[in-house]
Specification:
By secondary structure, the chain is of the alpha/beta class. The chain has twelve helices and 14 strands. The protein is 42% helix and 15% strand. Helix 2 links the parallel strand 2 and strand 3. The protein binds 2-amino-3-ketobutyric acid (AKB). The site of 2-amino-3-ketobutyric acid has 12 residues, from loops.
Length: 320
């Protein structure tokens, strides 16, 4: 049986995903029904101001509770996270934001009887023991980054709150997300976004991973679709809750560079791996996402060629 999402809270609405998911949720559910939060040091921008806006840090649990009560929130998308590269620089902060912040939200979800919480997990949950090709949904999770440790914990916590308290918590393991609106903030897969900006602005990009580094990636329109499809899926059909693999495309840094070169002749590139290479090497090349396809009908629309074409079209307008 499907419960409705009437009043939605998006935590972290200014980030790479939040800045694109929030407007789509507002188009679908109405401007007034989607409350967007931003951090005290951030500028939310005019687009996010077309609906209710609240300044909030997820670690401020009193304010989180006040906002949920003030807007009579029933469903929460939690996009507050410290990503993999930043998590290695600031592991304590990553633990607090990614685990403690989510725990506060789960506790409020239980106490205030929220209908639904959606939280992205990540390919960061995987470690080097996992088969690199078509990493299974059910496999050993021994990540080597702090980010991965926090995301495995979040998956387990979300599943626990569902089993123990019946709180409907849902999530999937996002690959690296490629998008043209807002830059990602401190992940290992950031090269797959930065390369487009530099190719258009400078005609050259130095990748911070090796040419043969192959990872699962996804274009933002598919990422937004995955959030909405999972959030709207019928609970009765879900055997998994917070730990779905979701796959879209996989390619190496070299393949991405050569595809961009086809659209931007004269683009040059080289490869100077840094400390992020170690994280990339610990993640699988591709994922088996059969449970997501079977339980909530996951199906992406974009591949390498259509994504590169659309990114270049959008960024050529944005950067001119
Ligand atoms: C990162 O690189 O940390 C993120 C992710 C794959 O979760 N983009």
């Amino acid at each position: 049986m499907e419960a409705e999402m009437n009043n939605i809270l998006v935590i972290g609405a200014t980030g790479q995903i939040g800045s694109e998911l929030t407007p789509v949720l507002r188009d679908k559910y109405g401007n007034e029904s989607v409350v967007a939060t931003y951090l005290p040091n951030e500028e939310p921008g005019p687009e996010l101001a077309r609906g209710p806006l609240e300044e909030m840090n997820i670690l401020n649990k009193v304010r989180l509770r006040n906002i949920i009560e003030k807007h009579d929130i029933d469903s929460v998308f939690n996009l507050a996270a410290i990503l993999s590269a930043k998590g290695e620089e600031a592991p304590a902060k990553a633990f607090k934001v990614n685990v403690l912040g989510f725990y506060y939200l789960l506790e409020l979800g239980r106490k205030l009887d929220l209908t639904r919480i959606i939280i992205p997990s990540s390919i960061g949950v995987f470690g080097p023991e996992v088969p690199s090709k078509n990493a299974p949904n059910e496999t050993v999770l021994r990540p080597t980054s702090m980010y991965g440790v926090t995301k495995v914990t979040d998956e387990l916590l979300g599943n626990y709150y569902f089993q123990k308290f019946g709180l409907d918590v849902r999530g999937f393991r996002l690959p690296g997300i490629i998008s043209s609106k807002t830059l990602p903030g401190g992940g290992t897969t950031d090269y797959a976004v930065e390369v487009f900006y530099e190719a258009i602005r400078e005609g050259h990009y130095t990748f911070f991973v090796r040419e043969d580094t192959t990872l699962p990636l996804m274009y933002m329109p598919d990422c937004v679709k995955s959030f909405i499809d999972l959030a709207e899926a019928d609970l009765d059909n879900l055997e998994h809750h917070c730990d779905f693999n979701v796959s879209s495309m996989s390619f190496s840094a070299g393949e991405l560079a050569r595809k961009i070169e086809e659209f931007l002749p004269g683009f040059t590139y080289d490869f100077q791996p840094d400390e992020r290479q170690k994280i990339a090497d610990s993640w699988p090349d591709s994922l088996d996402d059969t449970p997501a396809r079977e339980e909530w009908g996951w199906k992406p629309n974009y591949g390498l060629e259509s994504m590169v074409k659309d990114m270049i079209n959008k960024l050529e307008v944005k950067l001119q």
